[in-house]
Amino acid sequence: MAHTSSRTTIVFIVVALISAFVPAFSVEEAEALSLWDTCLLKISPKFALDIIGVVFENLTITDACCHNLVQEGKMCHDTLIKYIAEKPHLVAHETEYLKKNDDLWTHCVSISQTA
């Protein structure tokens, strides 16, 4: 029971953190919102936080997280990072974050292929 409770708590924390970074969607962006919702279901909350940490805070990533990222798919990965990088307080460094995003994807694909 405690494991389920802690997992639920982690999910709420991730959703709250991502919501803080993700801009509000307009009606015209319904497709983007649908993709976003689909992507959030594909990746664990811990790995989502790890990925955000790698791109925005220069943290490192585990092989397990890389495997999860590759299973999530490039479109979902790019969507997550792009929406966060477009926040007003981050947009000045958006190019840097998107490059780190691409570097992370390349790294994770190579890790997944060697396993």
UniProtKB/TrEMBL annotation:
<dbReference type="Pfam" id="PF05617">
    <property type="entry name" value="Prolamin_like"/>
</dbReference>
<feature type="domain" description="Prolamin-like">
    <location>
        <begin position="39"/>
        <end position="109"/>
    </location>
</feature>
<dbReference type="InterPro" id="IPR008502">
    <property type="entry name" value="Prolamin-like"/>
</dbReference>
<protein>
    <recommendedName>
        <fullName>Prolamin-like domain-containing protein</fullName>
    </recommendedName>
</protein>
<keyword id="KW-0732">Signal</keyword>
<feature type="signal peptide">
    <location>
        <begin position="1"/>
        <end position="24"/>
    </location>
</feature>
